[in-house]
Amino acid sequence: MHCYEDLVNCLSCGIILIGLGHLVHHRKTQTSYGRHMVLSPPARTVPARLAWFLQEIPALLAPLLLMFTSHKPSITGKHLLLGTFCTHYFQRTFVYSLLTRGRPFPLGVMVAAGFFCTLNGFLQGHYLLHCAHFDEEWSADYRLFLLGLVLFYVGMAINIHSDYILRNLRKPGEVSYKIPTGGLFEYVSGANYLGEIVEWFGFAVATWSLPALSFAVFSLSFIGPRAYYHHRFYQKKFKDYPKLRKALIPFIF
């Protein structure tokens, strides 16, 4: 497949603008799902496990389909980076979605998330397979590449461990909220979000590309504010909430 460079640049800039627009639009209120969900009577919802599975799987399938239909010679760097991207979405699709105990999702939120995952999966896959240039000396910048991969997998570990802590706060059937403790939750209220943000900025460093950077900026703009609103939720609900705990960045914010 030919590299559609103009399309890649337009989509990347569009994702950045969408992320910044979301940041501005939701500076006072959060997207209506989870603990911040406010539904009007006719609103339709989807069970959390099904919603997460359906909205995440396009980001896994899109690059895999591009990979299997690509007729270009296999380059180690491209497939290693694309495999890194797919690793995240395999975990979110087949592990996280099956274990989550979250509340039902509004149908509109699930559809919008699924559309974005499809678009982003295509963008990252198309860029890495058809636009990125990795010659036989691609490992010459191995320090930057390795730094990015280390950040990605450290962030992923933080994200998975934090999700585990949140998932085990309540027993099956319980609906009350509790103060999360352990891991990075000792320092921030949004440890799971911090982990995911670190993941995608690590991916951006490893690929050193506009598409990956655009996704990292989008992630920060979308889930960064959610960490802040979670922090405010905990502070209002629990009088004994740790006063030194920050929202997203330990000791800072």
UniProtKB/TrEMBL annotation:
Q: Where are the transmembrane segments?
A: 7-26, 105-123, 144-162, 200-223
Provide a Gene Ontology MF annotation, just one: 3-oxo-5-alpha-steroid 4-dehydrogenase (NADP+) activity
Cite the entry's keywords alphabetically.
Answer: Differentiation, Endoplasmic reticulum, Lipid metabolism, Membrane, Microsome, NADP, Oxidoreductase, Sexual differentiation, Transmembrane, Transmembrane helix
Membrane topology of the entry = Multi-pass membrane protein
Please classify the protein's predominant subcellular localization into one broad category.
Answer: endoplasmic reticulum
Tell me which Pfam families the record gives.
Answer: Steroid_dh
Family annotation (InterPro entries): 3-oxo-5-alpha-steroid_4-DH, 3-oxo-5_a-steroid_4-DH_C, SRD5A/TECR
Q: Name one GO biological process term.
A: cell differentiation
Q: What class of enzyme is it?
A: oxidoreductase
Give the location in the cell. Answer: Endoplasmic reticulum membrane; Microsome membrane
Q: What is its EC number?
A: 1.3.1.22
Q: Which residues form a coiled coil?
A: none
Q: Does the keyword Transmembrane apply?
A: yes
- Signal peptide segment: none
Q: Which reaction does it catalyse?
A: a 3-oxo-5alpha-steroid + NADP(+) = a 3-oxo-Delta(4)-steroid + NADPH + H(+); 5alpha-pregnane-3,20-dione + NADP(+) = progesterone + NADPH + H(+); 17beta-hydroxy-5alpha-androstan-3-one + NADP(+) = testosterone + NADPH + H(+)
Q: Which GO terms describe its cellular component?
A: endoplasmic reticulum membrane
Please list the residue ranges annotated as the 3-oxo-5-alpha-steroid 4-dehydrogenase C-terminal domain: 104-253
User: What is its biological role?
Assistant: Converts testosterone (T) into 5-alpha-dihydrotestosterone (DHT) and progesterone or corticosterone into their corresponding 5-alpha-3-oxosteroids. It plays a central role in sexual differentiation and androgen physiology. Converts testosterone into 5-alpha-dihydrotestosterone and progesterone or corticosterone into their corresponding 5-alpha-3-oxosteroids. It plays a central role in sexual differentiation and androgen physiology.
Q: Which family does it belong to?
A: Belongs to the steroid 5-alpha reductase family.
What name appears for this protein in its UniProt entry? 3-oxo-5-alpha-steroid 4-dehydrogenase
Organism, as annotated = Seriola lalandi dorsalis
Species lineage: Eukaryota, Metazoa, Chordata, Craniata, Vertebrata
